[in-house]
Write a structure and sequence with these properties.
By secondary structure, this protein is mainly α. It has one domain. The longest helix has 17 residues.
Amino acid sequence: MEAHHAPSEARDAIRFRHGLATWTFDEALDAAGRLIPLAVERVHWVSPDELRAGAAVAHLLRHDAASARAVLDRLAKVSTIAPGDLRLRLLYAYADRGTRVAGRGAPPDTTSRARTAAR
């Protein structure tokens, strides 16, 4: 990309997808921070739906439900996903639950319960 003088937005699109694919959410969110304002202006280097869901999930996995909700809301006007779509409803539910849990302290550790239930 350097040799061909690719625009910084193209690099951000690659970084965003790489960050999600490798679970390097800081990388994904760093790139999303530059891609989201462009997407709001209808300049899409990544599908707005991919950007919306990917950034929201990255925030959720960083235990930042408020930012996840903000991304979902901010990109709603450029999204092609219907408001009642199950995928979107689930993302909002996770963000809303995380916001409520954050108000009470640290998120619950469900991993140990899931392991115990699987035994």
